[in-house]
């Protein structure tokens, strides 16, 4: 019976590797060393790292450093991974060796063994194509992993921004739909002056637009690559033309045409500030999303004992015991996803400050948390937009009723009867339950014509010329 394993050797000795595995001995060691979470690399990171390996092979062939037959096999193997093949071969836990050495060797071994097959050999025959000598040529974990992180993050931000723009557009459309609906404004959760429901939604849309811009600016910094820095930022073991060639190849492979070399390669591998900056922008986005989701929950509270000014689409029963109850589950989900993003940001900050001298070795945990934030924000925003926001309905009657009852309407009387007199009217309204309109009419403070003009609800939601008596 044939053995189910092949024997490989590394500087620590020999070890059996599953015979059909494309990964090799160093990946096998990592599997044993890091049985931590069971979470393996994200598809986007695997793809981005394969792109880096492909670009490196192209650059090394261009300088004459890499045999073209081997180089073409490496490129073809990397292309298969980029197309989505062999992703099940990436088995190293996200909590792994510092700097991501285990992930780097995982992809080096997978590409090497697939290249060996393409060249007619059997897996593990590294005389044909070697994970370190050929696939990792002109590279170190210290520059390839951060470069893969940057490229993967750029792909993922692009997807997130697309969902955020749909969210912004949906909020803007709702703002137009609700523009003629008068409701009570609230400050300090107390009655305030009337506003239009459309104005509230317009503000939400602008909030998202500004958050997109902040995140776009942060993502742009990730286009500065430290590839070519190798181990300690000096570019040791690289051809003088390698860096220029590898950046050019990455532009072509990724389609990101404004990738650029870092001004200082050492800074690019020992500082995680660009990732911190993006994570911080994502945290800011999460804060705004939480605020908006909370408002949706509050405005839809009820249906009999809350605000009930809007109705969220019912997507599932809300209680296992209370019949007919429907909860704002999509807004609740968005809250929870955003809480996780804020926690991830703290982890990233802690990891970024833990860098020492020429290298920050905490890149794997930065990698995992940043990618999780990008993914859950994209997915939660999409679900919230599609399954909640698009189906929101306004309760026009309730909005108008609450606007008429608001003591905040007394504010519009200030220019006509003065602050003190207006305050007395507001106080009486709260004490008696009568509307401001009823009180000023009963007391003869304003005549019917003045009431219709001054207390016109729509006019109270925009600037207008006022004249004191």
Characteristic terms for this protein:
two-stranded antiparallel ribbon, 7% strand, Fumarase C, Chain B, domain 1, mainly alpha, 57% helix
What is the CATH first-level class name of the largest domain? Answer: Mainly Alpha
Largest sheet: 2 strands, antiparallel
Q: Calculate Rg over CA atoms.
A: 31 Å
CATH architecture of the largest domain: Up-down Bundle
Overall shape: elongated
Task: Say what the CATH topology of the largest domain is.
Answer: Fumarase C, Chain A, domain 2
Estimated helix fraction: 55-70%
CATH superfamily of the largest domain: Fumarase/aspartase (Central domain)
What is the strand arrangement across the widest sheet? 1-2
Please indicate the count of domains.
3
Number of helices: 17
Q: What is the average per-residue confidence, as pLDDT, rounded to a whole number?
A: 95
**Strand tally:** 8
Q: What is the string of helix and strand elements?
A: EEHHHHHHEEHEHEHHEHHEHHHHH
In terms of DSSP E residues, the strand content is 5-15%
Q: Give the N-terminus to C-terminus distance in angstroms.
A: 105 Å
The residue ranges in which pLDDT falls below 50 over 5 or more consecutive positions are none
Computed structural class: mainly alpha
């Amino acid at each position: 019976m044939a053995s189910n394993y092949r024997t490989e050797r590394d500087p620590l000795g020999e070890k059996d590797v599953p015979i059909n595995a494309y990964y090799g001995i160093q990946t096998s060691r990592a599997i044993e060393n890091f049985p931590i979470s069971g979470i393996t690399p994200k598809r986007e990171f695997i793809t981005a790292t394969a792109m880096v390996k492909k670009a490196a092979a192209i650059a090394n062939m261009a300088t004459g450093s890499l045999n073209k037959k081997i180089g073409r096999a490496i490129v073809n193997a990397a292309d298969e991974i980029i197309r989505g093949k062999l992703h099940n071969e990436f088995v190293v836990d996200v909590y792994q060796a510092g700097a991501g050495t285990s992930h780097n060797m995982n992809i080096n071994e997978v590409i090497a063994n697939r290249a060996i097959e393409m060249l007619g050999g059997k897996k593990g025959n590294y005389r044909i194509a070697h994970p370190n000598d050929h696939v990792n040529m002109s590279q170190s974990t210290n520059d390839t992993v951060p470069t893969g992180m940057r490229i993967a993050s750029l792909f993922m931000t692009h997807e997130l921004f697309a969902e955020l723009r749909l969210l912004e557009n949906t909020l803007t459309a709702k703002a137009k739909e609700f523009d003629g609906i008068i409701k009570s404004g609230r400050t300090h959760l107390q009655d305030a002056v009337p506003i239009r429901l459309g104005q509230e939604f317009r503000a939400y849309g602008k909030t998202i637009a500004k958050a997109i811009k902040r995140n776009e600016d942060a993502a742009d910094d990730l286009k500065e690559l430290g590839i070519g820095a190798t181990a300690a930022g000096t570019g040791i073991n690289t051809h003088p033309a390698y860096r220029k060639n590898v950046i050019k190849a990455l532009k072509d492979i990724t389609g990101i045409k404004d990738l650029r070399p870092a001004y200082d390669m050492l800074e690019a591998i020992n500082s995680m500030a660009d990732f911190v900056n993006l994570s911080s922008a994502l945290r800011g986005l999460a804060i705004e999303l939480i605020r908006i989701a909370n408002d949706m929950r509050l405005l839809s509270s009820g249906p009999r004992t809350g605000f009930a000014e809007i109705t969220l689409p019912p997507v599932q029963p809300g209680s296992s015991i209370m019949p007919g109850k429907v909860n704002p589950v999509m807004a609740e989900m968005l809250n929870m996803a955003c809480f996780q993003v804020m926690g991830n940001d703290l982890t990233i900050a802690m990891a970024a400050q833990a860098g020492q001298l020429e290298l920050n070795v905490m890149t794997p945990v930065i990698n995992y948390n940043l990618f999780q934030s990008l993914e859950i924000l994209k997915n939660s925003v999409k679900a919230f937009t599609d399954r909640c926001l698009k189906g929101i309905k306004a309760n026009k009657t309730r909005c108008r009723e609450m606007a008429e009852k608001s003591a905040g309407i007394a504010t519009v009387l200030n220019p006509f009867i003065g602050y003190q007199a207006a305050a007395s009217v507001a106080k009486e309204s709260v004490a008696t339950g009568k509307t401001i309109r009823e009180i000023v009419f009963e007391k003869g403070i304003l005549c019917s014509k003045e009431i219709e003009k001054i207390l016109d609800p729509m006019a109270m939601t925009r600037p207008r010329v006022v004249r004191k008596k």
